[in-house]
Structure formats: structure tokens, C-alpha cells
Design a protein that fits this description.
It contains 22 helices and 18 strands. The chain has helices spanning 59-67, 70-73, 90-109, 131-143, 154-164, 170-173, 208-222, 226-232, 236-257, 278-285, 292-300, 307-310, 317-331, 352-361, 378-449, 456-502, 533-536, 538-555, 566-575, 586-594, 599-605, 608-651; strands spanning 7-12, 17-23, 31-32, 43-44, 46-50, 53-57, 76-80, 119-125, 150-153, 177-182, 187-193, 196-203, 263-266, 272-276, 341-345, 368-371, 454-455, 596-597. Strand 13 (263-266) and strand 14 (272-276) form a beta hairpin. The longest helix is centred in the middle third of the chain and has 72 residues, at 378-449. The two termini are 27 Å apart. The model is unreliable at 513-587 (pLDDT under 50).
């Protein structure tokens, strides 16, 4: 069976609970597995040994150990919360292999038919997990009977699930976002951009089991005598990790409904927790010290404890969570203001303080904070849906690539030609107004009105001087307009591409097209270099020809020679008393330019009507020169814009299909 035809098994192997989801290869319809028929996906990450033999796994293992008499527990060993430690502890590694293999055997006994050899198996992994952890996870999964597994960042599974459930708009998923995976053993933070992991950080020691320990100590503070009974019954660790965990979750659920409630909880046969309030919890959370029971549990697994837990000093768990979040945000190049969504996932994300801290850190910003009603199951479902989503996306992307050439010819190239003509006209118009009207026109009027006899060569000199003075301004005008052409072209092509991709049911967020994001080097999807360097060189080209163009217009020469030939030349000939023969060729024009003209002759030559004709010819000549220069770089600019289309297509992710 080929990889694309196999069902997909997504596994979120967790510290407290593990979740398994199965998805068909062709459909984005993941189904979580309820192993124990309790209406809830997943099962506890726990394994019970009787002697050296595997006895039970999951919640059944915890219940069996709970129901056993103290003397019966002497033959039992309950392993829990071993996931974070598999790369550091051989004991945790063995427990993981036994747990995962037992899940397979018990699932088949119950008719779930999880057959890894016939499935595409994906395990989630924390984004900041090191290579040693990843390698160990692959090894234990293979030893447990799952074959060659694929590892996918857990936040990827989370975002796929939340977008598929419409808890996050597809458009928002393209913007930078933050996934907070606060679980039983670890707390991971991941910046996502365009649906892909950009930056991740976290703390392998910060997790829900510290809060289990908080409730363990809270109970012992209320009933110190229970400690001897727990030690006698050899169930201190079990009590901490299971019974106190239940108490913690009960308290958390109650506080979410109403923080003013007072909570009481029976703690098995060992007593009760009384008078639990949110204020008392916060006080304990801000002054937490790990118990010897928790430290011994971690050390017995071969774990090297972080200094924070070994120091004996009080720990503010809330500040630990907050400072870890802040530190990571300060180290990434993603501006916190650009983050558009925060996903809270993992069982411990149900704590109110986690959401409160996130809201405080993003206060005043336009950010959507979401948490699934079942945040613990989100990752496994997203992981199992990923291959079907990729398959569908790859098919669509192939069609897009095939149709791209026609899109370029029909949409991009005609737009570029039209826009370049428009820019050429704008540049010509602005130069005519600023240069001809404001600089040259006054010189021509002065030439016409002067009491002194003047030659056309003297006018030519004055106009040339004005052109030289105006050169920097010409370059600025053209650079500014061509820069606008480049930016407007990029924006238009991106918008045209976005609309075109919509025909394939591919969504690209509108926020990618905001004006403040249009700088070519800062464009959030494309990361482009500045386009059209040769276009910007038009400024130098035009400043070089300006003097020649205008002098040709007014005084003849090798350019348009409007005075030496044509209507104005005839007027000059008539004025000079029948010497029209002098204006036939360039040499005659040169002689004519040297001749001194009186005021009356100059007035006839420089009539308002004649000046307007010169202005029009100058405008047309300038526009044609600009179009000619732009046409030289049209092919290159078209290629550049085509690269933008390619870059947009490459920037698409599977999430576009949701």
C-alpha cells in the first residue's frame, strides 16, 4: 500500500495523557480514539507493572493501583509522567516503549484496529525539542511497533485543528501567531508564521505536575498526619500524581466558572481538602517549593533537576510562566504587535492564570486568544489530518503552477504595459510643469522682451544652464515615480494573485496587503529586494538627454530642430526678410543661431502660440523617451513580477486549503 493510500495515525504522546487520532488519506475528517469508552479521547500516560510484567495501561492502570490494598501495592509499580524524560532516563524510555506497545495490543483487543504497518504514523514533538529527544522518540516508537514514524511539530497540529474548527480564521492563520502548549510536564511557546514554525522556546521543567505537587502540599498542610499513612501504604508518588492531579483539575474547572467559589475535595480515604479559594491558590503558586516526594520521583527517573527546583528557594510559578513567555518574545524578530492570534493548548492551558497572563501581555493589541473546549485533544487531531491536507494542497498547487503562465499573460503583462505608459505620462507632465513652465518659460519671455539684440545661441545657452541646474530634480522626480511604479506593481500583482488563487479555493489574508506592509524589503510574505534598479537608472538617462531635447526643441541641432525647420523656422525666415534658404539644413540653422535678432523679430518668434507649440512638442518628446527607456526594462520587470507570483505560490501552506 502506497504512502498516500494509507490511513493516518496521529499521536500526541503527552506527559499526563496521550491522544490518538485516525484520519482517512483522502478526507480531512480526523477521529479521536476513546480507548476506554468514557466519552473522552485518549488515555492516561500511565503503565502498571506487576513484578516485571506489564499489567495495565492508561486510566485502568491508575484505578487498579488505587483500588489495591496497601499490601497488594508492594507487588505493583505504577509509572506515570515519564514522557519528558525519555532521552535522559532509561527507566522512562523503557516505560514509554511498554506503554506505547500496550496501547497497540489493547486497542486491537477492543476492536480499534490500529495497525501501524498499514498506516502513516505521525508523532507530535515539541518545537524546541533537541535532536537527542527526537532521535529517542523515533527509536522508542519503532521498538514499540509503530515502524518508521514521522515527527511533526506539535504547534502545527494545534493550528491545523483550530483553523479547521473555524476557531481561527484562515486569513489570520497567515499572520504571525503564538501557540502556547502548556501540558503536564512541559510548557512550550512557538511563533507560527504562514502556518509554519518560525521560532520556539520553552521550559521542560515547567508543567502541570508542579501544580499537582502544590495541591499535594496543600493537603498535607491541612492534614499532616496523612503523610505517614501515605508513606506506609507506599503510594505517596501515586497520590501526588493522580489523586492530587484530580483535585487540581476539579479546582481549576470550578474557578473557571466562578473564582469566588470555595472548593472542597475528598482525597480518597486519606482525608479532604477544605476551603480552597482562588486567592489562597495564587498565594501558594507565588511561593511554591517542590516537595521531597516530587524531587525523589524526578531523581529516581534519572532526571537532572534544574537549579530552580534544587535551590530550595521559593518559586513564583505564575512569574515563571510569564517570564518564559516574555523572554522568548524578546528574542524573536517578530514584533509582538504583529501577532494576530494566540492558541492555548495542552491540559494545563485550562488554568485561568495562563489565559490571564497571556491577555495581560498582549493587552491593547489586536490579537485573538483562543482555547478549544478540549485543548488536550487538538494536537492529535491536527496531526492526523495533515497528510490528507497536504495531498489536497499538492494537487491544487500543481494546477496553479500549470495555469500560471496564462495568468501572467492575461493579467500581469497587460497591467504592466498600461501602468508603465501611465507612469511615463506622469513623469513627463511633472517635468514639463516644474521645468518648462517654471524655469524655461520665464527665460523665453525674458528673451522675447529684452531691449538688447540677442541671438538664438544666447537663448540656447540660457536654456542649457537651466537644464543643468534642474538635472538633480529630474532624477528625483523619475526615481520617485519609478519607485512608485515598482511598489504599485508589487501591490497590484499580489492582489491580482490573491484574487486569482481564490478561484482555486486558496485563501490569502487581506492583512498581508496593508499599505504599511508594502515596503519591498519588509513585505511579510515575499522578502523581496528592491525591484527595477535599471528603471531607477532612467533618471540618469533622462538628465543626460534633457538639455539636448530642450535645446533641439528651441534652437535646432540634431534633435527636433523645431526652429530650424517647420513652421517656426518659416516664421524666422519671413522675419529676416526672405532668407528662408538659410534654414534648409543644420549648417544653415547653426548660422541662424548666431544672428542677432531685434526685439520685434524675437516677439514674433516667441509668440505665446509658438511657446505653447514648443511646450507640447517637448512634452511629447519627453514622454516618448521615457516610454522607450521603460520598454527596455519591461521584460526584466515582468520577470521580477513573475517571481513575485512564484514567491506567493511557494509561500502558500496547507492551511490555505482549510
Amino acid at each position: 500500500m502506497s504512502g498516500t493510500d494509507r490511513r493516518v495515525l496521529g499521536v500526541d504522546f503527552g506527559t499526563t495523557n496521550s491522544y490518538f487520532s485516525v484520519c482517512p488519506p483522502e478526507e480531512i475528517s480526523p477521529q479521536g480514539i476513546d480507548f476506554e469508552g468514557r466519552g473522552r479521547d485518549g488515555l492516561a500516560t500511565a503503565i502498571l507493572y506487576e513484578g516485571n510484567e506489564i499489567f495495565l495501561v492508561g486510566d485502568k492502570a491508575i484505578e487498579e493501583y488505587s483500588d489495591a490494598l496497601p499490601e497488594e501495592r508492594r507487588a505493583l509499580t505504577l509509572m506515570m509522567q515519564f514522557k519528558p524524560d525519555i532521552s535522559e532516563s532509561e527507566r522512562a524510555k523503557k516505560a514509554t516503549i511498554d506503554f506505547l506497545s500496550s496501547v497497540l495490543s489493547t486497542s486491537q483487543e477492543r476492536g480499534f484496529f490500529i495497525l501501524p504497518e498499514d498506516m502513516h504514523v505521525i508523532f507530535g514533538v515539541p518545537s524546541d525539542a533537541n535532536e537527542e529527544y527526537k532521535s529517542t522518540l523515533k527509536e522508542v516508537a519503532q521498538d514499540a511497533g509503530y515502524g518508521e514514524i514521522e515527527l511533526v511539530d506539535e504547534p502545527t497540529g494545534a493550528i491545523i485543528h483550530h483553523v479547521a474548527q473555524r476557531e481561527i480564521p484562515v486569513s489570520a492563520a497567515f499572520s504571525p501567531g503564538l501557540v502556547v502548549d502548556f501540558g503536564g510536564g512541559t510548557c512550550d511557546f512557538t511563533i507560527m508564521d504562514n502556518g509554519r514554525v518560525k521560532w520556539s522556546w520553552g521550559d521542560f521543567a515547567l508543567g502541570g505536575r508542579l501544580l499537582d505537587d502544590l495541591f499535594f502540599q496543600w493537603f498535607l498542610d491541612q492534614d499532616p498526619s496523612a503523610e505517614k499513612r501515605l508513606r506506609k501504604d507506599r503510594c505517596e508518588t501515586f497520590f501526588l500524581l493522580s489523586i492530587c492531579k484530580d483535585a487540581k483539575e476539579h479546582f481549576s474547572r470550578t474557578m473557571e466558572k466562578d473564582k469566588k467559589q470555595v472548593v472542597h475535595k475528598r482525597m480518597w480515604e486519606y482525608g479532604r481538602l477544605e476551603g480552597l479559594t482562588w486567592e489562597l491558590f495564587l498565594e501558594r503558586a507565588m511561593n511554591y517549593r517542590p516537595s521531597d516526594v516530587l524531587l525523589n520521583f524526578l531523581l529516581s527517573g534519572g532526571i537532572s533537576l534544574p537549579d530552580r527546583l534544587r535551590s530550595g528557594a521559593a518559586i513564583d510559578l505564575l512569574e515563571w510562566f510569564r517570564s518564559t513567555l516574555r523572554e522568548g518574545l524578546s528574542r524573536t524578530d517578530v514584533d509582538k504587535k504583529s501577532i494576530k492570534y494566540v492558541i492555548l493548548t495542552g491540559g494545563s492551558s485550562l488554568w485561568l492564570f495562563a489565559k490571564d497572563i497571556v491577555e495581560e501581555e498582549f493587552a491593547g493589541l489586536d490579537v485573538r486568544i483562543v482555547r478549544s473546549t478540549r485543548p488536550y485533544a487538538a494536537i492529535a487531531k491536527g496531526l492526523s489530518a495533515l497528510p490528507a491536507l497536504k495531498k489536497k494542497f499538492d494537487e491544487t498547487k500543481g494546477k496553479i503552477q500549470k495555469d500560471k503562465e496564462e495568468f501572467i499573460k492575461k493579467e500581469i503583462e497587460p497591467y504592466l504595459v498600461e501602468h508603465m505608459d501611465h507612469i511615463a505620462e506622469e513623469i513627463a507632465q511633472e517635468i514639463v510643469i516644474e521645468f518648462f513652465d517654471k524655469q524655461v518659460h520665464p527665460v523665453m519671455l525674458e528673451f522675447r522682451k529684452s531691449e538688447t539684440d540677442l541671438s538664438l545661441k544666447e537663448l540656447e545657452k540660457r536654456v542649457s544652464e537651466q537644464a543643468e541646474i534642474f538635472k538633480p530634480r529630474i532624477e528625483h522626480i523619475i526615481k520617485e515615480k519609478v519607485d512608485f511604479l515598482s511598489r504599485a506593481s508589487v501591490a497590484a500583482v499580489i492582489e491580482k494573485t490573491r484574487v486569482w488563487l481564490g478561484n482555486y479555493r486558496i485563501a490569502i489574508g487581506e492583512e498581508r496587503l496593508r499599505p504599511e506592509a508594502m515596503g519591498t524589503e519588509k513585505f511579510p510574505i515575499l522578502s523581496l529586494s528592491s525591484p527595477g534598479d535599471k528603471c531607477l537608472a532612467i533618471g540618469k538617462v533622462m538628465s543626460g538627454i534633457m538639455s539636448g531635447v530642450l535645446v533641439s526643441v528651441v534652437c535646432g541641432g540634431s534633435g527636433m530642430a523645431l526652429i530650424a525647420t517647420g513652421p517656426v523656422g518659416i516664421i524666422i525666415g519671413a522675419i529676416l526678410g526672405g532668407i528662408a534658404g538659410l534654414v534648409i539644413g543644420a549648417k544653415s540653422a547653426d548660422k541662424l543661431k548666431d544672428k542677432k535678432l531685434g526685439r520685434w523679430a524675437r516677439a514674433r518668434i516667441m509668440s505665446n502660440k509658438a511657446i505653447l507649440r514648443v511646450r507640447k512638442k517637448f512634452h511629447n518628446k519627453l514622454r516618448e523617451e521615457l516610454k522607450e527607456q521603460l520598454e527596455k526594462v519591461e521584460a526584466e520587470l515582468t520577470q521580477h513580477l513573475e517571481k513575485i507570483v512564484d514567491t506567493q505560490i511557494e509561500a502558500l501552506s496547507e492551511i490555505c486549503q482549510l
